[in-house]
Design goal:
The protein has 180 residues and is of the alpha+beta class. The chain has 5 helices and 5 strands, in the order H-E-H-H-H-H-E-E-E-E.
């Protein structure tokens, strides 16, 4: 026997709704490492499309014959794709809906190459955090993003500074357009 529509509506109305979001400033733990999963397998299409839309005509990304004659013997993933994907992998877990603004990236490096077919795994560590002196209800967080391939080799590093909302407090609402 199937329940009638009113029973379905009642059951649906009582279900708890959970909206995925990042972490508020207050929830970010100094020294904590956040492992972002799943990883992202880099493809030839990713490399060619990203290089093309960013007008990066570097032969090491686009020319298989040329790249075969170079030290790595094959095309390299565009390092800006690696950086963007590494930061992007952190969004759903750390900054989705809680980011006010990205303030800067420093100490970006690519200690090992990433190739087509490699899988990029990203983790983020909270290096520093402090409340903003000029923006009530917001804090400045410094994150260290680390990208590793499927063998655990570090292929990318970046330090990122971001302005993050603090958790809403009774009587204190975020600025217009901010995440409640």
């Amino acid at each position: 026997m199937t329940p009638d529509a009113s029973e379905n509506d009642a059951a649906a109305g009582s279900a708890r709704e959970v909206v995925q979001r990042g972490l508020y400033y207050d929830e970010l733990e100094l020294g904590a490492r956040y492992l972002h999963r799943p990883g992202r397998t880099a493809t030839e299409a990713d490399n060619v499309l990203f290089s093309s839309i960013t007008m990066n005509t570097q032969a090491l990304h686009l020319d298989a014959a040329f790249s075969a004659s170079q030290p790595f013997g094959q095309r390299l993933m565009n390092s800006m794709w690696t950086l963007a994907t590494m930061v992007g992998a952190s969004v759903s877990q750390i900054t989705q809906g809680t980011l006010v603004a990205q303030l800067g990236l420093t100490d970006v490096s690519f200690p090992a190459p990433l190739f087509h077919g490699d899988t990029l795994y990203t983790e983020s560590e909270v290096l520093d955090k402090r409340l903003s002196a000029s923006r009530p209800g917001q804090g400045i967080v410094t994150l260290r993003h680390i990208g590793r391939n499927q063998r655990g080799e570090v292929v990318a590093l970046a330090t990122r500074t971001a302005l993050i909302w603090c958790a809403p407090q009774p009587g204190r609402e975020p600025a217009e357009g901010g995440t409640p």
